[in-house]
Amino acid sequence: MRGLVADLASPSPLIDSLPGIYQEDELARALAQVFDDALAPVLSTLDNLEAYFDPALTPDDFLEWLAGWVGILPDETWPIERRRAMVALAVQLYRKRGTAAGLTMHVRLLGAGDVEVHDSGGAVWSRTPGGSAPGDPSFSLTVNVTPPKKGAVDPVKLDRLVAAAKPAHVMHRVTIRERSAT
Prior knowledge:
The protein is α+β, with helices and mostly antiparallel strands. It contains eight helices and three strands. It has helices at 20-23, 26-47, 49-52, 60-69, 80-88, 90-95, 100-109, 155-165; strands spanning 114-119, 140-146, 171-176. A three-stranded mixed sheet has the order 1-2-3, covered by helices on one side. It is elongated. The chain starts with 19 loop residues before the first helix and ends in a 6-residue tail after the last strand.
């Protein structure tokens, strides 16, 4: 917590900016020191402001605010390194949001292991009007997940993540496969 940094000295003590008569007065020195103690964390924060917006450098207690600022809500049970990675990848996640690649990236960040996303849609053009489009017109996708060698995947969290990361009109199904013993 930035407000409770013990022994943090002010980079520019206020007593140095006062006229000489006050610099020699003990009461003035004591009062200036109180303000220095209160302002030192503020000045330190302002001097290092760019570090607060870098997910790799921001203090742990500020990461949650930074995550909310970019619209990412990482799981609080994740290690801090994974939460930092999630915030750092926010731009890439939003750039690919609503695509199979974006959904795959989201699910992998959950730590789900191997991920395969199959969607029913497609895009096509034809020189012949009225040609049939590829895929199934039902707007659905299937997410197949093989958990990592060590650990398991929470099916409820996985389903919620897929529901939040896919386009709203697309139906989805999540399948968790067992890892082969080979």
